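Question (not urgent): is this output format expected?
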Amino acid sequence: MKISLITATYNSASTLRDTLQCIQEQDYADIEHIIVDGGSADDTLRIVAEFPHIAKLIAEKDEGIYDAMNKGIAAASGDVIGILNSDDVYARNTVVSTIARAFDDPGVLAAYANLQFVQRDNLHKVVRTWRAGKYSKKSFYYGWMPPHPTFFVRREIYDQVGLFNCSLRSAADYELMLRILLKHEIPAVYINEVIIKMRVGGVSTASLRNRLKANSQDRLAWRINGLDPYFFTLYMKPLRKLGQFLKR
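Got this back:
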């Protein structure tokens, strides 16, 4: 089983080496790592050139991180696709093997796991752990969402439901998971392990924090999928708590 991993970069030199190294050190052999760079002016591409495991490099102007991710998904040839942000790392070198074992069951179409927020300058200093918990159809109505960096899906799911909706800006990842899990009712397996370390204060957490503030975009994510946003007030309450944490 080939696992495609997509990393979008833009002036990511300060953290990218950690991201690339954690993939290079994975104990799973059949990895296709795709870098999509939006025109970095720092040492990002020079660092990319240091890692021969990278299968594809797309270096061209894009319309933002979700446009870059869409380009990566379109270029991917793996059976399963995951996304690793350029300031995130895998928690250990067995993460991709763990994902592959989950997808050994042909009935598994999507999977997600837990995530740790860590200090920006110390990946070993855990600030908080996001334990996603098991998904049920009611989950989204009560504020639940899986950590997007832990979210893996079979390639054919993107063919079925489409890619990121870039018009939703910082809500694009939320909307995609809402579309896959709730609208199309794609079953997802919960892997009760921490597989991602996300730096607090980095691009990834800034994007998440901004999305949590974007009430109108989140409401739109429900409406464009023909879903009832009646419980949106309930949904926002736990997300505001997470947003308050991310401001620290």
